[in-house]
Amino acid sequence: MKLTSWMAFALAITLAATGCRNHRPVGVTTLPRTPGENITDQTGPTLPSEPNPQNTGGIPMPNIEDINGMAADRSALASSTVHFAYDSAAVRKSERQNIETVASTLKSNPGTKLMIEGNCDERGTEEYNRSLGERRAQAVRQALVRQGISASRIFTKSYGKDKPADPGHDESAWSQNRRDEFVLLRPKSGA
């Protein structure tokens, strides 16, 4: 009996020493991130910065360094927020006027740039919603490029479900949270 106990103890120690390494989970999708941004995954270590891996529809993403030092104006295009249907990144016909308004503003202000922030409602996983928010922002970016806006002036970021416009938990709130918001980036005075 003592020999069996010692063998069980030795086996437990061996398993603990060899089986408890810190491995990255298999099949986990890396969240999209902006170049230069570090994020921490749930296991703790900081992931290195890398380019945004999302599909940009064949339109190259501009260098994020191009907007450093620009002043962010969230109010200029607040009334042009684009809303989406549930689980969709397709721009609805009813939202095209908002995109035309944004394009017109950018054409009238050639020194400005634009950040499109993709958002989702609270349903779905964090990874799924970040990906969906990025697809929504990319869809609007492509629509703006078709309107004649240079792709080098348009940046995207996804917040997934992290920044709800309405904190409610019903369809009325969710429909407000499925959106792209626009941040007009202006050169700072004296720059």
Describe the secondary-structure layout.
Layout: H1 2-19, E1 70-73, E2 82-83, H2 96-108, E3 113-119, H3 126-146, E4 154-160, H4 171-177, E5 179-187
Parallel strand pairs: 3-4
Antiparallel strand pairs: 1-5, 2-5, 3-5
Structural write-up:
The protein has 191 residues and is an alpha+beta fold. It has a domain at 68-187: OmpA-like domain (60s Ribosomal Protein L30, Chain: A), CATH 3.30.1330. Helix content is 31%, strand content 15%. Strands 1, 2, 3, 4 and 5 form a 5-stranded mixed beta sheet that branches. Residues 20-55 have low confidence and may be disordered.
Termini separation? 81 Å
CATH domain class of the domain at 68-187: Alpha Beta
Q: Give the class from helix and strand content and strand pairing.
A: alpha+beta
Which range best describes the helical content: under 10%, 10-25%, 25-40%, 40-55%, 55-70% or over 70%?
Answer: 25-40%
Could you list the spans in which at least 5 consecutive residues all have pLDDT below 50?
20-55
Beta-strand content bin: 15-25%
Treating each run of at least 4 consecutive H or I residues as one helix, how many helices?
4
Radius of gyration: 22 Å
The major beta sheet can be summarized as: 5 strands, mixed
Shape: elongated
Q: Assign the CATH architecture of the domain at 68-187.
A: 2-Layer Sandwich
Reported by name, the CATH topology of the domain at 68-187 is 60s Ribosomal Protein L30, Chain: A
Mean pLDDT: 79
| Tally of DSSP β-strands | 5
Give the SSE string: HEEHEHEHE
CATH superfamily of the domain at 68-187: OmpA-like domain
